[in-house]
Amino acid sequence: ETHGITFRIQISVKDLLDTNVLLKLLFHLPVNYPSTLPDISVTSDQLTRAQCMDVKDKLLEQAKKHLPEPMVHDLILWVQQHLKYVIKQSATVCSEKPTLSKATSTEDGIWMLLLHLDHMRAKAKYVKTVEKWTSDLRLTGRLMFMGRIILILLQGDRSNIKEYLILQKTSKVDVDSSGKKCKEKMISVLCETKVQSQHKRFQTFEVKEYSTLDELQKEFETAGLTTFFSEFVPPLLK
């Protein structure tokens, strides 16, 4: 009655190589849950401590979107669907850390962000909102549609990209099944990294639709992002 309840759950989740990863999740639900976020602990013998911390941080980010409604079941479903992308993002960010630690100035320069959206119910309004945000934040790139796949590829100052992510996650950009305005709850950060010399710089932000996977692949190849396509797009087709 005074401390809430704590429970543990073990789930088996596929990673990037389709290997089963056993996740041990501990949820502590305070007395005033779900008006208050649960405490979450993530451990796994198959992940590094840093990866477990990244999974925990992502779960807490998702939890905030569900306040003040019960969320544990949704969080478990989310981690089952997105663990592989969290692990991949963790590896990408880690590879950049030695550079970032040298000096604050290395935070500057051009960064790139690749997002996956599950759906757009109010497509016209959603697209117009994304175009406005990218214009206001001086971001370039592509909003890409191919069948049911929706990707947002952004380039720009890292601070502006972070600001875009905040807007994307906290603004009511879409409508739910009943037509009521809602926040974006089904977004995945596939990759966030510094633009390298082999990557083409986009000069504008464009909304493009592709009729085949080959057309989408050529867009990535033209931008010098062949490896990004092969790593992140095929898993979305499964």
From TrEMBL:
InterPro entries: RWD_dom, RWDD3, UBQ-conjugating_enzyme/RWD
Pfam families: RWD
Localization terms from the record: Cytoplasm; Nucleus
Domain RWD residue range list: 1-86
Top-level taxonomic group: Eukaryota
Entry keyword Nucleus: yes
Predominant place of localization: cytoplasm
GO BP annotations listed: positive regulation of hypoxia-inducible factor-1alpha signaling pathway; positive regulation of protein sumoylation
Keywords carried by this UniProt record: Cytoplasm, Nucleus
CDD domains noted in UniProt: RWD_RWDD3, RWDD3_C
Protein name stated in the entry: RWD domain-containing protein 3
Lineage, top ranks: Eukaryota, Metazoa, Chordata, Craniata, Vertebrata
